[in-house]
Specification:
CATH superfamily of the largest domain: ATP-grasp fold, B domain
Radius of gyration: 20 Å
Number of strands: 16
Largest sheet: 7 strands, mixed
Number of domains: 3
Strand order of the largest sheet: 6-5-4-3-2-1-7
CATH topology of the largest domain: D-amino Acid Aminotransferase, Chain A, domain 1
Order of helices and strands: EHEEEEEEHHHEHEEHEEEHEHEEHH
Helix content: 25-40%
Structural class: alpha+beta
Strand content: 25-35%
CATH class of the largest domain: Alpha Beta
């Protein structure tokens, strides 16, 4: 059997690149070497490069996403395993580029990536499928902001968050009108568009959903108990939260969360890894957002859920590669 060439593509243009490099390393280490030749490709704003086992870099050919090695050998890839969190791997930019050059890749396609990276649009689409979310107001940079109107419509506390950003960067919990100014400043540093949401008082859960061996499954429901006010970047990646898998919920609520998470995934035509965040309030799961390239470092929620579910990381990652290999090339 000819081994397929797999590029684990990591890095990215946002502050999340640090997490992406760790996620990429886990996938690189986990893919079955009996089936695949596995390579690392790092995409950063400054440069795109191939990284060999000795840490030597070689520039990528962007015309066909290949690399010419010093040995004179040209490496092309049967599949790109996309594990970039944030731009350009989670917002559709990279997928659109790969579609244009006819490169196969894991995860969802350009449209799903672009849609789910936009919190406002995702929740608007899912509301048509009966999936509840918090009340919200949407503001573009430069628009007039009436904090009194926000408080009147949403109440306090509320959340101010960038509309398009990952890893909870730029999110603030606002408890007084005086705190809005700094909250908007932080959010607009991450994005030109800001979403203000009413605070939902309930249990936060993170739900891993993936299409595995032809079926959409919930890997697990993890209860998030932040040591801080909410599940921010520090809580996610620097240990300032307690994550309990499986979540401490009754069977009826668990079933409801699983059903709504699968419905959201299938309604959006998703593929690949996903992690959706919900607040359970009075037994009803309210959706906050869906991540289509969630953290996959050893400290991340999804690999832990897979372990408890009983799927090895090797099988979970191999399943993604095999699905990608079966895709039709989308050369435009």
């Amino acid at each position: 059997m000819d081994k397929k060439n797999v590029a684990v593509v990591m890095g990215g243009y946002s502050d999340e690149y640090v997490v992406s490099l760790k996620s990429g390393q886990l996938i690189y280490d986990s893919l079955d070497r009996e089936k695949y030749n596995v390579y690392k490709v790092v995409i950063m704003k400054e440069e795109w490069y191939f990284l060999d086992d000795h840490g030597q870099k070689a520039g990528m050919n962007k015309a066909d996403f290949s690399v010419d090695l010093d040995s004179g050998y040209k490496v092309t890839f049967d599949v790109c395993f996309n594990i970039i969190h944030g731009k350009p791997g989670e917002n559709g930019e990279l997928q659109a580029y790969w579609d244009i050059i006819g490169q196969k890749y894991t995860g969802c396609n350009f449209y799903q990536s672009a849609l789910t990276f936009n919190k406002k649009d995702t929740l608007a689409v899912l509301s048509k499928y009966g999936i509840p979310s918090a009340k919200s107001i949407y503001i573009r940079k430069g628009e007039e902001i009436s904090t009194e109107e926000i408080v009147e419509r949403l109440g306090l506390p509320c959340f101010v968050k960038p509309n398009q950003s990952g890893s909870s960067l730029g999110i603030s919990k606002v408890k007084t009108i005086a705190e809005f100014e700094n909250a908007f400043k932080l959010a607009f540093e991450q994005d030109e568009e800001v979403l203000i949401e009413s605070a939902l008082d309930g249990m936060e859960v993170s739900v891993g959903v993936v299409d595995f061996e032809g079926k959409t499954i919930v890997l697990g429901i993890t209860e998030i108990v932040p040591a801080k006010e909410f599940f921010d970047y520090e809580a996610k990646y620097e240990g300032a939260s307690e994550e309990i898998t499986p979540a401490r919920i009754d069977d009826e609520t668990r079933t409801k969360v699983e059903e709504i998470a699968i419905k959201a995934y299938d309604s959006l035509g998703m593929s690949g890894f996903s992690r959706s965040e919900f607040i359970i309030m009075n037994g009803t799961p309210y959706m906050l957002e869906m991540n289509t390239n969630p953290g996959f470092s050893p400290a991340s929620i999804l690999p832990k859920q897979a372990k408890i579910y009983g799927i090895s990381i090797q099988d979970l990652c191999g399943n993604e590669v095999e699905k990608a290999l079966k895709k039709e090339k989308k050369k435009i």
